[in-house]
Amino acid sequence: MLTPDSSRFWPADQFEPGHAQPSFDKQFVRDWLESTGWDKNPPAPELPTDVVEKTREKYLEAYRVLTGEDLQV
Questions:
Q1: How crowded is residue 7: how many other Cβ atoms within 10 Å of its Cβ?
Q2: pLDDT in tens, 64-73
Q3: How far apart are the first and last CA of the chain?
Q4: Contact 68, 61 (CB under 8 A)
Q5: 18: left (phi over 0), alpha (psi -120 to 50) or beta
Q6: How far apart are CA 71 and CA 64, in angstroms?
Q7: Which residues have CB under 8 Å from 52's CB, separation 6+?
Q8: Which residues of 30-47 are buried (b: 16+ CB within 10 A; e: fewer)?
Q9: Which residues, other chains included, contact 65 with Cβ-Cβ below 8 Å and sequence gap of 6+?
């Protein structure tokens, strides 16, 4: 089963050779963590609401793409 954690998968209709692709991964979480200066030792900083919401949206989008349906939550 594919997971949205992979940067190897992206929407085919948005593919542009020679550019970073809009993937289903969580690179934006990594980028946010890097911007905090966190030294990667516990405890991790608490994620802000907007980062959590974007993560949720990415997973719901991946579900829609894979199944053609909205996840009923």
A1: 13
A2: 888 899 998 7
A3: 21
A4: no
A5: left
A6: 7
A7: none
A8: eebeeeeeeeeeeeeeee
A9: 11, 24
Lowest average pLDDT, out of 9-13, 45-49, 61-65, goes to 9-13
Joined together, the tokens standing for residue 66 give 């894979």
- Residue corresponding to tokens 């289903």: 24
Q: What is the DSSP letter of 42?
A: S
Cα dihedral value 20, 54, 51, 33, nearest 10: -30
| pTM for the predicted model, two decimal places | 0.71
Hey, what are 50's tokens?
């907007």
Q: Which of 1, 47, 44 is nearest to 24 (CA)?
A: 1
- Residue 1 pLDDT exceeds 70: no
